Amino acid sequence: MKDFVIIGHKALTSGDFSLNDLPGSAGRMDILCRCINSALFLSHEMRRDINVHLVLLGEPDPGKVIRFNGQELKYLNPDERSSGSLIKKALQKDALEYESRSTPGVWIRRAGLEQLLEEFAEKGKTVYYLREDGEDIREIAPSLDNSVFVLGDHMGVTEEEEAIIGKFASKTLTIGPISLHSDHCITIILNELDRVEQ
């Protein structure tokens, strides 16, 4: 399995938002929805070897992780409203210290970035941080299976978060010299991996 971690700094942590206004009422939840779609959808199929972990840090109750698992996922269509609806349903459940399923393939729990990355390290997964000044992903793409890729949202990554990521990341990778949207980064990463795996 490949894992993508996306940090949502303003993403609402309650289900009290409108699916008609994901950028405004939900704290730029639209960015996270696009990341879900980029990670999971192919033209006429879904990637089954992907987990997407949304680290939600917005009001009113920050510190929740929603996981989308491609292997078990159902009821997801390739539009932001569909993924937003599954996030909304997950946030209507109580977030506990352990994962609880809201819909097939979607789980929620109470956790933060450091706990999540520590768990990956304990499982022996390799964590990579995406930033423009990192090592070219094409140089190491053949060894990236079973990896974790950490990305920020429209606000980037804070210094504190960068320090946390630095404790667990084996390398900082770049997909090019220009700053791109997180969902575009995911598409390019998966394309590089697809080219190696074919």
Number of domains: 1
Write the CATH fold name.
Alpha/beta knot
Shape: globular
Number of extended strands: 8
Q: Hey, roughly how much beta strand do the residues contain? A: 25-35%
Across the major sheet, the strand order is: 4-5-3-2-1-7-6-8
Give me the CATH superfamily: SPOUT methyltransferase, trefoil knot domain
- Class per helix and strand makeup: alpha/beta
Please provide the ordered H/E string of secondary-structure elements.
EHEEHEEHEHEHEH
Average pLDDT level: 95
Distance between the termini: 17 Å
Could you characterize the architecture of this molecule?
With 198 residues, the protein is of the alpha/beta class. The chain has a single domain, classed as Alpha/beta knot (3-Layer(aba) Sandwich). It contains six helices and eight strands. The chain has an eight-stranded mixed sheet. The longest helix is centred in the C-terminal third of the chain and has 16 residues, at 182-197. It starts with a strand and ends with a helix.
Secondary structure topology:
Blueprint: E1 2-8, H1 29-40, E2 50-56, E3 64-69, H2 80-91, E4 100-103, E5 106-110, H3 113-122, E6 126-136, H4 137-140, E7 147-151, H5 159-168, E8 169-174, H6 182-197
Parallel strand pairs: 1-2, 1-7, 6-7, 6-8
Antiparallel strand pairs: 2-3, 3-5, 4-5
How would you summarize what this structure contains?
This protein has six helices and eight strands; from the N terminus they run βαββαββαβαβαβα. The chain is an alpha/beta fold and 198 residues long. The mean pLDDT is 95.
